[in-house]
Specification:
This protein is of the alpha+beta class and 131 residues long. The protein is built from 1 helix and 6 strands; from the N terminus they run αββββββ. A 6-stranded antiparallel beta sheet has the order 2-1-3-6-4-5, with no helix packed on it. It is globular and about 40 Å long. 18% of the residues are buried. About 13% of the residues have low confidence.
Length: 131
């Protein structure tokens, strides 16, 4: 009688990870972000963190290439083109190192520390994906 009980236990233990993986596969990606109140056709940056919908006005909303300085915690590309975004880390009131990132159309994310977005350019399509 011990053999059927061991088989049942093995089947049960195998089913638990399979059920967990099924739930994880249906969860949205952690990098997905909602467009919030960013109008269609605009690239937006918000000065504060939020999740879902927001009424916080963006510190930057542009439908063209742009340069300047916009405080940023969250960004979203609500255009039909990929964007190359340049930003700097804000450290103790002074600006730190400069970085660039490709932001795909319909994509957005958040910074883990306060940043200033300094440049937004349409990405030249070289055939490589924009992550």
């Amino acid at each position: 009688m011990r053999f059927p009980l061991m088989r049942l236990r093995a089947i049960t233990l195998a089913a638990i990870p399979a059920a967990f993986l099924g739930v994880m596969a249906s969860a949205p990606s952690a990098s997905a972000w909602a467009p919030g109140n960013c109008p269609v056709g605009q690239f937006c940056v918000w000065p504060d963190w939020w999740y879902g919908d927001t009424d916080i006005p963006p510190s930057l909303a542009t439908d063209a290439e742009w340069s300047g300085s916009a405080r940023g915690s969250i960004f979203y590309n609500n255009t039909s083109r990929d964007v190359t975004m340049t930003y700097v880390v804000v450290q103790d009131g002074a600006e730190g190192p400069s970085y660039t990132a490709c932001v795909g159309r319909g994509q957005g994310s958040y910074f883990t520390m306060p940043m200033s977005v300094t440049d937004v350019r349409w990405r030249q399509d070289d055939g490589s994906p924009c992550w």
